[in-house]
Design a protein that fits this description.
It contains three helices and 15 strands. With 197 residues, the protein is mainly beta. The strands form three sheets. It has a six-stranded mixed beta sheet. The N and C termini lie far apart (63 Å).
Length: 197
């Protein structure tokens, strides 16, 4: 039976301690196969720029942030959790948990493709599995780009990367104006439509 550290003044170090048993294997821990008890909320937040905070202060250790990111899960209830084999704690995520900080156009096995890298070092190739979608912001009404990193975890494509993609996009005339799209692994991904054109 796991111990719920969150009820005893939980600290990030407790979560780290619960993961010490993991071998340094390649790949991510199997968080979806773990079903530990829910131990409540922890004062941890991922801000819109992808920075992790604990008790209102940024977490400066990159290795700790990457460890937390590796055990992050987005459950059916819409909440985000850090999950270890012995406890599950809820954290706050302002937007998407990750930020796509670079996109590289390259030749892949299936033709041209885009490789995206996140702020925590994840690399994903834009594809059906790692789809790019434009979602309308509830706050601004503008469409914002996101790419699926894994499971139900997305990365917000940062502004500089999005401008790069727009500059490299193919223009196609449509009824509403000019549609901008990029191509990766044989699929076209829309970046939106410029009205008028």
């Amino acid at each position: 039976m796991g111990v719920c550290f969150v009820n005893n003044g939980s600290k990030p170090e407790n979560i780290v301690a619960n993961l010490q048993f993991l071998n340094k294997k390649k790949g991510l821990p199997p968080v979806h196969s773990w079903n530990p008890p829910f131990c409540g909320d922890i004062d941890m937040r991922i801000s819109r720029d992808g920075r992790w905070h604990y008790n209102g202060s940024p977490i400066g250790r990159e290795s700790m942030v990457k460890l937390f990111a590796s055990v992050l899960r987005h459950d059916d209830d819409g909440h985000y959790y850090l999950v270890t084999p012995v406890e599950k704690v809820r954290i706050q995520v302002d937007d998407a948990p990750f930020v796509a900080v670079s996109a590289e156009a390259r030749d892949g096995a299936n033709g041209p493709e885009y490789l995206f890298t996140t702020n925590v070092g994840d690399e994903v190739v834009l594809s059906n599995e790692h789809n790019l979608k434009m979602i309308k912001s509830m706050k601004t009404g503008e469409f914002v780009p996101y790419i699926r990193v894994r499971d139900r975890l997305d990365a917000l494509v940062n502004r500089n990367v999005f401008y790069q993609l727009v500059a490299e996009a193919v223009e196609t005339r449509v009824t509403e104006g000019i549609e901008l799209s990029i191509r990766s692994q044989g699929q076209n991904y829309s970046l939106g439509v410029v009205e008028g054109g």
